[in-house]
Amino acid sequence: MPDLVIHPTRRWISMGYTAVFLACVAAVFTHTNHLSARGWPAWWLLFPAALFLWPFCRGLKRRFTKITITGDRLRHETGVLSRTTRNIQLSNVQDVRVDQSLFQRLFWIGNLSIETAGETSQLTIANIDQPHAVAEEIMNAVQSKPGKPKGES
Fold it and tell me: Mean pLDDT for each 10-residue chunk of the chain (153 residues)?
């Protein structure tokens, strides 16, 4: 089985960029039609432009958060500057749960929770595209692991 890499969705980031772009367009429109005649300097437009940092930072966080299924292991990696990696044997995965709010259901995304045997028993990754299909893929990888009977989970 090829490696399966799961990232959080890009949809929220795209919506964030769109919202910030519209806010900047509105700020420029307001400045050119109303505020420049009243003596407002153009440098205040840097404040709406600085809002682009919000979706940019969220995009970085998304890029550096992933779950990778390789062979008989599941690896969860997070962090931009500092890195946290958690390795889980697929044989320790006991349950895969999908939680979706109404808003998440409208956009076909959800939170994926993986229950494992051990000290830290739950691993959650938020806002996954098509979470039910991903949960099925993980459970299929758990069940097809060599040396593990098909009926055991």
Answer: 86 93 93 82 86 93 92 90 90 92 93 84 89 92 66 49
- Alpha carbons 18 and 141: distance in angstroms, whole number: 37
pTM for the structure as a whole: 0.74
How far apart are alpha carbons 86 and 91 in whole angstroms?
15
What residues make up the domain containing 52? 13-56
Going by C-alpha positions, the residue among 12, 22, 74 that lies closest to residue 49 is 22
Instruction: Please give the Cα distance from 79 to 34 (Å, whole number).
Output: 44
| Three-state DSSP string of 100-116 | CCHHHHHCCEEEEEEEE
CA–CA separation, 68 and 142 (whole Å)? 13
Give residue 38's Cα distance to chain centre.
44
Residue 101 lies in a domain: yes
> 127 and 94: one domain?
yes
Residue 23: beta bridge partners? none
